[in-house]
Structures are given as structure tokens and as C-alpha cells.
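Session log. Operator J.P. requested a structure for one protein chain; no other inputs attached. Running the standard single-chain path with C-alpha cell output.
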Amino acid sequence: KAIQEAGLYTIVQLVIGMPGETNQTIKETSEFACKVIDMFVDDYKMEFSINYAQALPGTPLFEYARFHEAIGTTIDEEEKYLLKISNVNASHIGHYLHLTEGTFADAIIWRDRIRKAIDMHYHLKLKKPFKDENIQDNPYFTFIPHTSRLRLRLYQFLGELMWTQLKIKRSYQYSKNIREALKILFVKGRPTAKIPDRSLRKIMKEHKSDLPYSEIQPLREGR
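Structure written below.
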């Protein structure tokens, strides 16, 4: 709000999928995004950057993932993970480590849920005109989409049924295999109750001696 009042411009940066994320917290993030739209409703350039949390070396999330053996227990497994996430678009689910409660199929459509909430709020509640069809989506950012209102009404009518069919679609797109897609749909992740309600930096400092490696990369202050 202060940036807008000062006549400056910014995109809306969202990072989703940290440990503890659930469908409920994604709903809260969607509601926040809609509040932002209300602030910037006349800004035709408004964009959202919606990315999945990346466990990158040197970050508490990376050490947290190693502690829970989500990256692997050997140097070769860790190297394989690092090669997998190299030069990957953060908005894509391919790099994401699922360290949250619920199924991976829940996580796979979290970005879709936020995008659709933005779409519905802008075009159905505020009844704003659709954007110029010539605007090209940048792979890193989300413009206010220009889906037809009829399709949005259908999404509203279908409710959770829409998300169920989207989970099936995204699971198959991710795995390219029916058996693996079924596993994504039904295998649950890590219970939220096992994740302490403290910052990841503090958790890693407290559990440093329990890590499967004799040494961990230093957790830099201020990051």
C-alpha cells in the first residue's frame, strides 16, 4: 500500500509450500492476494509471482530437508537432487520437496488454487474487464488471467469437484505414469504435528548434533 501511494511499482511475490503448509493456509494466502487486488485494482500491470519453496544449499530449508532425509542420505543422492533442481523455474512443482501434511496431490494444485481465486475475485466479484488477449504470460509471473466468465461460473458451481479432477490431471502430468499418479493422489506426507512451531533456523541450530552429517553448511545470519 505504501509503495502504491509513493507511485512506485512492485509485483506481488508469494512463496508457498514451506513445512506446515496446508489447504487452509493456501486459502488464507488466496484471501490475502484478493485484498492486494483491492488495493491495486486500477493497476493494469499488476502481476503475481507464485513460487514453490526451494530447498537450496545454504538455507535452513535445505538443512531441514536433509535432517528428514528428503534429499537423501548419501553424497551421490544429494548430488542427484542438486542436479535435478539446477536452472529450474521456481513456479514449477518439479523441484519441490513435499515436507507438509496431506498428499502431494494437494501440493501440486496449490498454485492453481491461488491463481483461480485471483481470477474469480477480479472478474466475478469486482467485475473488471478482461485483459488484452495479446498480453503474453511470462513464465515467472501471473497476470490477472483472462478466462471467460462463463468458465469461471462453472468453476464456482463445481467447487471441490473441480479441484479433484485437477488433482488427477496434474498428478498424471507430473508422473506420466498411471501407477505413480495414483501414488501421488493417495500417499500422505509428513504430519504437521511433528514440525515445531519455531523458525527453521532455530530448529536446525538446536538439532545440529543430530544431523546425519558430521558437519552442515553454516546458517548465515540475515538470510
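Operator note: Strands lie at 12-16, 47-52, 142-143.
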